[in-house]
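User: I'm writing a tutorial on reading structure tokens. Could you give me a worked example: one chain, its sequence, then its tokens, then a sentence or two explaining what the tokens reveal?
Assistant: Sure. Here is the example chain.
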Amino acid sequence: MNGAKVLVVDDSPTMRQLIIFALQRLPGLRITEAGDGVAALKQLSGEKYDLLLTDINMPMMDGLKLVGLIRKDAIYAKLPIIVISTEGSNLTRERAIATGANEYITKPLQTTRLIEVVRRLLDPEAQLS
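And here are its predicted structure tokens:
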């Protein structure tokens, strides 16, 4: 997990900072941020990431469209993706997972839950011991 590159995508600068602050509890992560799906795709085209966290409701390109496009790219077909959204309905959760998200976390964000999920996705072998 040390040195893992993480991309945080959310149109709210405050929410991005909250997520980044939580992720900084995990030493060695290199965190980049993007304000919407279009900006995220630009970041992904120029650099390799180990984990992506995205909101659903964003201007320009929403998170579900972003997840769908990422899953169609062979380079990122297996990239772990966490959707973080205020939408807590089972239907939205199921759509996100069906589109290709690995995990779905609802806001308000619980830091301990986020860290647990990030650890599990970045270092699956550690969960087996």
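What the tokens reveal: The longest strand covers residues 5-9. The two ends are 16 Å apart (CA to CA).
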